[in-house]
Amino acid sequence: MRLLLSALSPVLWLTIFGLCPTLTIGPKEGWQVYSSAQDADGRCICTVVAPEQSLCSRDAKSRQLRQLLEKVQNMSQSIEVLNLRTQRDFQYVMKMENQMKGLRTKFRQIEDDRKSIIARNFQELKETMDELNPLIPVLEQYKMDAALISHFKEEIRNLSVVLTGIQEELGAFDYDELYQRVLRLDTRLRSCMGKLTCGKLMKITGPATIKTSGTRFGAWMTDPVASTKNNRVWYMDGYTNSKIVREYKTMDDFVSGVVSRTYSLPFKWEGTNHIVYNGSLYYNKYQSNIIVKYSFETGSVLAQRALEFAGFYNMYPYTWGGYSDIDVMTDELGMWVVYATNQNAGNVVISQIDPDTLHVLNTWNTEYSKRNAGESFMICGTLYISNSHLSGAKVYYAYSTKDSSYEYIDIPFHNQYFHISMLSYNARERALYAWNNGHQVIFNVTLFHVIKTDDDS
């Protein structure tokens, strides 16, 4: 069975979304099937949205439980306030009670001897009555507080019933167990991602600007076959007449400008279409059609070989020039070289080469003029060509080496700084590295994938 997955954007989609240097946005309520359908062969096509790994959102009952607990807490605080006020007023009432007892005694004295007492105690009686007047609003407040407390008691009884019901429904599925289930599901998805076969380019998003440095032209790259712990970055400023390569241990060091090593190559390079692959640098030797393999570990040339009939030194460059005649690139299927020859009328030639010996393994001749190409890159054995290095550029031509066919496509991308002099695909990160007018940027790519299941042979 084959599960075809269409591609969408960020948190974690079953369709691989490449590197994401910027912050991305995704669903937060769990795993969701975004859409589903069937193709002509009856195979299921669906889109699955995964939650953020660090998030373990519970169901609606959990949210209701949290709201109820907050409500109980608020009610408890209100009752505490009422209790303090009641104690204060109780002391006041006790005081008034003593005053009323004294008043009762005075009335009895007045009753016994009205004439002699009235004149003497009238003023005292008036003052006592004035003191009792504030008791009236206190008693009124007591009535209101008593009604509020009665209401609170009823609310708490209702909440207790609801909380008991929720507890019974949740049963043994506590937070920790639910979180572990999400982690296990995430592990299964990542295992499924490991079975992804090659995909077709559907979309290019970004770019994310990593750094601004160097001249208008240059190259920067990471090793697509290195382990995930190896995040070294290599930096080559300029397109000719230079031999200096700078190495950074991590992407953070690259952004901060912390150089770990500097290499001086035995030969100058030409163009900006270099790559690092399995610890070695592959580049076009200055004023020649020779490809050089240079080992960073040994500091020596491991191999060099001329591309037969390949134009060089601005004979068949990309639209921006810069001695970009020969473009070395890699993808999921290995190493490739894109160039042009007189024998193919200056049109693009694709050759797959052996990374160890640089021998040409196979060659495809296209009918697309090399001089009309802005930049190009390989993904899963398909060459994608942009129509320009300037603003408004888009990928609009694709040549598949699998069946030697081509098609015109329309995949725009944002040329933020108006002049791209390097565009290279990194299969490990599923992203496009670019040098854009003195800015080092990364584009995300969205691919349409086919997943091989255990039933496939």
Radius of gyration: 39 Å
The backbone outline, from C-alpha atoms, is rod-shaped
By DSSP (H or I, 4+ residues per run), the number of helices equals 5
Helical proportion, percent range: 25-40%
Low-confidence stretches: 1-36, 49-58
Strand percentage: 25-35%
End-to-end Cα distance: 10 Å
Description:
It is a single chain. By secondary structure, this protein is α+β, with helices and mostly antiparallel strands. Helix content is 29%, strand content 33%. The protein has helices spanning 60-112, 114-132, 135-170, 175-193, 251-256, and strands at residues 2-5, 12-13, 32-38, 44-50, 200-212, 218-221, 233-237, 244-248, 261-264, 275-277, 280-284, 290-295, 300-306, 327-331, 334-340, 347-353, 360-369, 376-379, 382-386, 394-400, 405-412, 420-426, 431-436, 439-452. Strands 1, 2, 3, 4, 5, 22, 23 and 24 form an eight-stranded mixed β-sheet that branches. Strands 6-7-8-9 form a four-stranded antiparallel β-sheet. Strands 10-11-12-13 form a four-stranded antiparallel β-sheet, with no helix packed on it. β15 and β16 (347-353) form a beta hairpin. α1 packs antiparallel against α2 (114-132) and α1 (60-112) runs antiparallel to α3. The longest helix is centred in the first third of the chain and has 53 residues, at 60-112.
Tell me briefly what this model is:
This protein is 29% helix and 33% strand. It has five helices and 24 strands.
